[in-house]
UniProtKB/TrEMBL annotation:
This is CHAT domain-containing protein. Residues 605-852 form the CHAT domain. InterPro entries: CHAT_dom (IPR024983), TPR-like_helical_dom_sf (IPR011990), TPR_rpt (IPR019734). Pfam families: CHAT (PF12770).
Length: 854
């Protein structure tokens, strides 16, 4: 019962001990309590109960009972870090037992070999055990042994063999009532899905396993470790770090398994390194190394040492000693047959390159590059990164570009398996180094066209295809409805000055649930076969200009496209530009309120400084036609209309030249339906809406109770023009929950992603609707970024808080131009010019941006 209904088994065992049982029965009861404490409680209590169980078995003169207890005790001792004592217990158990009992002890030793990282020994023991267990018709233990063998195969990179064993085990579990083992089987299938590169399936299966464990009331430390692995691969390293640290806290509170603590520390170290926190990574990895060494877990120790060296390198350290350490770790990982071995060789090669040890670097990188030919996507990415660095070290620019192209193609294929736009965006971080290497070689040896092509290769890739919509998922839909209701109640309580901790907790729970459901979605769209064509871009620009801003080695490179050619100009330091943009944003926030007129010259001066940094000499060569600015994700907070050379132009912004081309070639929605929405609580009451409605004949106007999320989404789907006057909230902590407030609560980014086709043009008249989060290599998450792949060709939105009265004037002037047939960029240029010259109106005009090409 202890794995079918753990808490019931514990109660039954304690009940047995209260009845003064004979030694044989008491031995079983103490063993059950020992198993429960070993896996979900205090290791000290576990060892105490198991030693008593063994003594009672000896008193009962039952060699088979003693053998079985010794197997359980061996596992507990290994988990407690007493490896030598644990292995001795197994030896004694195998000597004392026979047949079926001995096979169970062999299975437990095989499990402990796996925990210790001795995979070949684990396979030998589990194979011997499976033969006997099958002959004995022991379904439960055969299924356990098959699951273990599959897990060992995964550790050795043999995914196909693991799949076969997992499938066989699952068929056996379906015939049993072993609920904990069934949950473990689901968890194991999640691990197999991850190892084969299917991140959405892995997340779905791990979540299902967690639900099963929750029903049993048991902690899930192994599941936590595996989820951390998947979260890191999905680009969610900060979440993985938080999950690992939380699990360590729980484990310490229980006095639980020291082996699991070491593994959690290793997961936390990896996550911290990927999250850009090398100090935390170093601390966690160093402690993990010490624990693994004390537990005699050399396989695990080598993995922890790899992360420790990576973290030290990330802090800027580079020395011959580190090269030697990395080579030693890589050799140990290779001797174990560990899939992480190429990462060790790549690390050694990187450090050697930093030290200009070209011959050594080439040797190490050549070994790492072998992994590019097979295995899961991220392993092949490691190989192509090594190949690119190797080519760079040997002076082969063509070799660098070919390796970068092949590596990014691998990541493209992987990315399209991800249905959630958030996962696709974050996954691009894996290709950042390859994209940067290709850009650097293009800057040094190629022309501006080549640099433009490589700048486009890994920019705003998520916008190349709409997110995969879930099938009719009643759980997700009900979750969105419940979230909206709870968020609305919490907002109402805050406005009344009432405390809302309970509502906020429920809101956070619903956010987690919604996010989990969306992350489970598997991608359906194939890779973007429509590669960027510079010639097509230049043709479509006509007399206009497109300014693409690339960042290489911290410096701005300006690529000016137009008049049939691409020219390159040097800009300033991107860090300076980011600081200046932050000052501008702060100034715009101040200017949104009366009495801040003195800040206007300061903001304008910042605009001039931004132009020097971001456009350089290109500012004088923009011609007289429209201008499209394509900034990197980290500079999307710049109010481009503030720059002097752009202030009086027809100006639009796009996340990439490719997305501008797609918007330019998007056909308007047939039928010309127009939708105007007024949300609640606006200072002006959305005063522009009635007047705007008069310009368009008989538009659909949704206000008051009609402005409910479901109705608004229904009307927006396929509209030609939408104007939404509603409070906007940008969530930097979770961009996909950025929202517009409707009558029944927030309309979030996840809602918009359910549209079959978003409106051809959208005007968002409230604050912060254009704010976006920079994630991955050069990706954006937020409301505008969600709309562009769904059929929207043009958006007008604000990247800063704005003056409510000034917004009304700007919107009326904007719609005057739109209704006269102008594009959004043309209408916005004219609307700015029509505003009064006072500070609030000028700042409001600068805060709004036209995105896209409609």
């Amino acid at each position: 019962m202890v794995f079918a209904a753990p808490n019931d088994a514990l109660a039954r065992a304690e009940g047995v001990l209260h009845t003064d049982p004979p030694p044989l029965h008491a031995s079983v009861a103490h063993q059950v309590i020992g198993i429960w404490q070993r896996d979900w409680g205090d290791m000290r209590l576990a060892l105490d109960h198991l030693r008593r169980a063994r003594a009672l078995a000896a008193r009962a003169d039952s060699a088979e009972r003693e053998s079985d207890v010794l197997g359980t005790l061996g596992v507990a001792l290994v988990h407690a870090g007493r490896t030598r004592q644990g292995l001795a217990a197994f030896e004694r158990g195998i000597e004392r037992g026979t047949g079926h009992t001995r096979a169970r002890v062999l299975y437990r030793r095989a499990y402990s070999w796996w925990v210790l990282g001795h995979h070949r020994e684990a396979l030998d023991d589990v194979r011997r055990a499976i033969t006997v267990l099958r002959q004995a018709g022991d379904v439960i233990w055969t299924a356990r042994a098959l699951t273990l063998r599959a897990t060992v195969h995964l550790a050795l990179g043999a995914v196909d063999r693991a799949d076969a064993d997992f499938t066989a085990a699952e068929a056996l579990w379906d015939t049993t009532g072993q609920e904990h083992d069934k949950a473990d089987a689901v968890e194991s299938r999640g691990l197999a899905a991850f190892r084969s590169g299917d991140v959405p399936a892995a997340l779905r299966l791990l979540d299902e396993a967690e639900e099963r464990y929750a029903k049993l009331g048991t902690p899930t430390f192994m599941l936590d470790i595996r989820r951390c692995e998947v979260l890191m691969a999905a680009g969610l390293a900060p979440e993985a770090l938080a999950e690992a640290d939380a699990a360590i806290t729980v484990l310490d509170g229980l006095g639980g398994q020291s082996t699991r603590k070491a593994e959690l520390l290793l997961a936390a170290a990896r996550a911290a390194r990927l999250a850009g926190d090398p100090v935390t990574a170093t601390a966690r990895a160093a402690l993990a190394v010490r624990l693994f060494a004390g537990q005699r877990r050399t396989w695990w120790e080598a993995h922890a040492q790899l992360v420790l060296i990576e973290a030290r390198v990330a802090t800027g350290r580079s020395s011959g000693r580190l090269v030697a350490d990395a080579v030693r770790v890589a050799e140990r990982l290779s001797s174990f047959g560990a899939p992480a071995a190429p990462e060790g060789w790549l690390l050694a090669g990187r450090i050697a390159l930093d030290l200009n040890w070209a011959e050594d670097a080439e040797r190490y990188l050549a070994v790492a590059a072998r992994s590019r030919r097979g295995g899961p996507p991220l392993a092949r990415m490691t190989g192509w990164a090594a190949q690119a660095l190797w080519a760079r070290a040997t002076g082969s620019g063509r070799g660098v570009l070919e390796a970068c192209r092949r590596g990014l193609d691998v990541l493209d294929d992987h990315r399209t398996t991800l249905g959630a736009s958030e996962l696709r965006a974050r996954a691009t971080a894996q290709g950042a180094e390859l994209a940067a290497l290709a850009q650097q070689v293009s800057l040094e040896r190629g022309g501006p066209r080549q640099l433009l092509m490589w700048s486009e290769r890994w920019r705003a890739t998520v916008l190349s295809a709409p997110p995969t919509r879930p099938p009719a998922d009643p759980t997700l839909l009900s979750g969105l409805t419940a979230y909206r209701e709870i968020a609305a109640r919490a907002e109402g309580a805050r406005m009344d000055g009432r405390p809302v901790p309970t509502l906020e907790r429920e809101q956070r729970r619903l956010e987690r649930e919604i996010r989990s459901r969306t992350l489970h979605i598997r991608g359906e769209s194939p890779g973007d076969g429509d590669r960027f064509d510079v010639g097509r871009l230049l043709e479509r620009l006509g007399g206009g200009r497109l300014v693409e801003i690339a960042v290489l080695d911290g410096r701005v490179q300006v690529l000016l496209c137009g008049d049939g050619r691409v020219r390159r100009f040097a800009g300033g330091a991107v860090a300076e530009a980011e600081r200046e943009a932050e000052h501008v944003q702060a100034g715009l926030r101040r200017l949104a309120h009366p009495g801040a007129e003195a800040r206007l010259p300061v903001v304008e001066a910042s605009g001039r400084r931004l132009e020097e940094l971001l456009l350089g000499e290109a500012a004088a060569r923009l011609g007289s036609g429209p201008v499209v600015v394509v900034p990197p994700a980290r500079l999307h907070q710049v109010p481009w209309a503030l720059l002097p050379s752009l202030r009086d132009r027809v100006l639009s912004v796009s996340p990439s030249a490719s997305s501008w081309l797609r918007a330019r070639e998007t056909e308007p929605t047939p039928g010309g339906r127009r939708v105007l929405v007024r949300g609640p609580g606006l200072a002006t009451g959305g005063a522009e809406v009635p007047e705007v409605a008069g310009r368009y004949g008989r538009p659909t106007v949704l206000e008051h109770e009609d402005a409910r999320a479901s109705r608004v989404l229904e009307e927006l789907d396929g509209a030609a023009l939408a104007h939404i006057a509603a409070h906007g909230t940008f969530r930097a902590d979770s961009p996909m929950f950025s929202s517009l407030r409707m009558a029944d609560g927030p309309l979030i980014v996840h809602d918009f992603e359910r549209l079959a086709r978003s409106p051809y043009r959208i005007i968002l008249s409230s604050c912060d609707t254009a704010r976006l989060a920079s994630v991955g290599a050069d990706e954006l998450l937020g409301l505008v970024a969600a709309l562009l792949p769904l059929g929207t060709a043009g958006v007008v939105a604000s990247s800063a808080p704005v003056n409510d009265e000034a917004v009304v004037a700007l919107m009326l002037a904007l719609h005057k131009g739109v209704s006269a047939g102008l594009s959004l960029a043309e209408a916005l240029r004219d609307a700015r010019a029509a505003l009064p010259g006072d500070a609030p109106h000028q700042a409001t005009g600068w805060a709004f941006t036209a995105f896209g090409a409609a």
